[in-house]
Amino acid sequence: MIIEPLNQIENTINTLFKDTEKDQFKIMKGLAKSAFRPIKPEDFKDVYLSITKKQGEFLKEVIIENKLKNIIEFGTSFGISTLFLAQGALVTNGKIITTELIASKAKTALSNFKSAGVNSIIEIRIGDAMETLKNYMEPIDLLFLDGWKDLYLPLFQMLEPNFNKNTIIYVDNADMKESQTFLKVISKMKKYESDLKFDGKVALITTKK
Ligand SMILES: C[S@@+](CC[C@H](N)C(=O)[O-])C[C@H]1O[C@@H](n2cnc3c(N)ncnc32)[C@H](O)[C@@H]1O
């Protein structure tokens, strides 16, 4: 029954990945803007900065295998990773809240969710994740961290009351300096353990059983 929607998502994902081929040049332009000041998200307002297809497939499998339903994503960009999350959520009957700072990116992401036919299971919140998720009260089964890395720790701490013993926190760009600082803090907390994937580019944090 869900084969048709899965195909529609797959088609949208493939179209978007084709478009990411222009990212390299746009990243260089973004980096040039930030040569004499700290990088800002706006410097990359036209850039996908997406996870890879393999990572997306893995993310989908994690959701399905662990029957994860309540999914929160930090860092939507144009929605490639959200569409992989949606592939998993369609199987588990789950839903996604995703949040993006830059309104133009969020607008395009919403249009991509509509093209993929999954906008009914995705809520997109526009603004700083620390604000858009501040009053979030429901349980979280999967927290996908892929926004600016300096917010990984404050966001984790803000949302931690919503975790349960089976919550998975998926940390993208785990090998970046600020993510490492975050992971070091987590490693000192007895409650959690983390497992590195994709040559250390991804970390999965879970509660010790
Ligand atoms: C690496 S990209 C996300 C890529 C996306 N997850 C994917 O794989 O397709 C990071 C995104 O986080 C957004 N971002 C940065 N700081 C943010 C914040 N404070 N709140 C919400 N989004 C933020 C950026 O604008 C950017 O689009």
Automatic annotation (TrEMBL):
PROSITE patterns: SAM_OMT_I. GO terms for molecular function: O-methyltransferase activity. The keyword 4Fe-4S does not apply. It comes from the Bacteria. Keywords: Methyltransferase, S-adenosyl-L-methionine, Transferase. InterPro entries: SAM-dependent_MTases_sf, SAM_O-MeTrfase. Signal peptide: none annotated. Pfam families: Methyltransf_3 (PF01596). The keyword S-adenosyl-L-methionine applies. One of its GO terms (biological process) is methylation. PANTHER family: PUTATIVE (AFU_ORTHOLOGUE AFUA_6G01830)-RELATED. This is Methyltransferase.
